[in-house]
Amino acid sequence: MPETTMPDKLWTYGEDSKEGGRPTQEDRCATLEFRTADGQSALLALVADGVGGRNTGALASQWAKEMIPALLSQKAPTASEVPVALVEAFEAAHDRIYNEVMDNPSRAGMGTTCTTVVIIGRRLYLAHVGDSRAYLIRGNQIHQLSIDHTWAEEAIQAGRSREEIRNHPNRGVIKRCLGINEDVDVDTRYRKFGTEEADDSADHPVVLEDGDRILLCTDGVSDMLEDARLLEVARRHPATENQAARAVVQAALKANAKDNVTAVVVDLPGAVVAARRLPLPVWAIGGAAALLLLAATVVGARLAGLWPPAAPTIAASTGTPTIIPTARILLATVTQPAAIAATPTVLPATRSAASAAPATPAPAAQPGGPTYTPIPTFTVEPTVAPAPTVLPVAPTTRQPSAPTVPSRTYASPALLDPPNRETLNGEVVFKWQPGEPLPDGAGYEVVWWRAKESPNTARGFADPVVTTELKTNLDGPFSGQQQTIRWAVLIVNRNPYTRLTQPSESNSRELVYQPKSNDGPTCVGVCD
User: For position 460, which CATH number holds?
Assistant: First the structure.
């Protein structure tokens, strides 16, 4: 976490980002402290998730990370001007990405989501495009501030249930990105705490309270962790030194994240770290084991008639007490006065009572003295604990058991729609027929490459699905430029990502993309 030099700052913060299930990192995050024009300390926090492929997605999110904080701090708006300055910074980053695509058609489809907050005192301003999220954690509640710009969110607002859309092929369709279409609509709304109602007044910031925590994350986190789990993990650690952000990222990775995972956490004063069960320290475990051993020894001694201990035998010749070095005497040294147990023989700590040396016989009694009766040595019988019963763990969809490399040849799916050499634009439904049942943990991926390219350059329209159709929008990936492509359906292992079949001319079809004469829809296709 960067060190702050602002004496009046109210926050601590941290960030973390990992590749997760992706071969490359297309997520970006940033934090920046700056002064407003009216002299107030401010904190900017940002997350961005690149779309459009391994190279272009990373470039788009990097530009958002660099440009938005730089433009905002350089302009140094007053606190009341922050919402407008945020929108202008978003639009500048959008223009930079979009113009790059216009100048370099090979980068068609390049874009990025971006969610940014600026905190000034106890006021929070939000600017947002895409499906990366901003959460407010207050007490024992977690509340999503940002509103997803996705097909799924629109379907929910239209009355469809969350259960219905959870596995729908269109659930990942993003409706807004920086850089995809000619214009971008930056969203400054936020959900009011504890409700689904949106506040769309630019001059009405989120009013924060002492102890509040702000969490920003990409969909690699929010897709893997339900709100309750996210709350549980985030509240266990402070934001400072990246602890809370790292905990969130690690929880998403443990949940088998198939995407890049990124989190930024900001704490206001008074943020409380939730109590959690910690493993017992070694000394506590050792002390408990010693007490249990002592208790077992005492019980065994009672059963054998060896407790409480008898008084030590006195030799008639000298009157000096002779301590018999047995387990019985060892116990006596714990409770008897020091004068009696001044020189006992104590067994080494690393030896068990069962392996103790046998008792040394007492010297023979002198004539006329008392008769010596040997005291039996108490030996603790070792106890063998039964082997624990291990219950089978039911597999989950987040922990596929598929191999990471192909172990045999798989039959490619038969392509059904659209027909070969069809001229299309806008929303398209790709359909296919399986050649064989899917292996465990596998899915179908619809990929494409330009007609003049090698099939080895094929990239996916979307994340793998387990259905036999995929609906997407061609206007996003091809950015309104006419071109001929080939498309195929591959069988892939979903985590770690591995192609079990390979694209080729023989198992693909040709498609001609002809842009519409008008501006077309705003949907940008199925994005990562």
Answer: 2.60.40.10
